[in-house]
Structure prediction request, 79 residues.
Amino acid sequence: MGQELDISFLEDVTVKVTGEVGRTKKLFIEIISLREGDIIKLDKNTEDYVELYVKDQLFAVGELIVANEKYGIRVVDLA
Prediction:
């Protein structure tokens, strides 16, 4: 059938991946008034999926997890 594509030359390419937990809109005065310990409410619940972006393009969705005392994202589906 088809021939496999050799992409081994991409093995050392670094790509920025961004995980988005949620969004909100704030007035500028609210932003500059923030203090340590303030809570910013986001548009998602803790159980909602997290989006993963590569170069500002949706790449995958996942679940927020805690691994080795750090936050991580378990990929559930590729976009």
User: Anything to note?
Assistant: Residues 28-32 form the longest helix (5 residues).
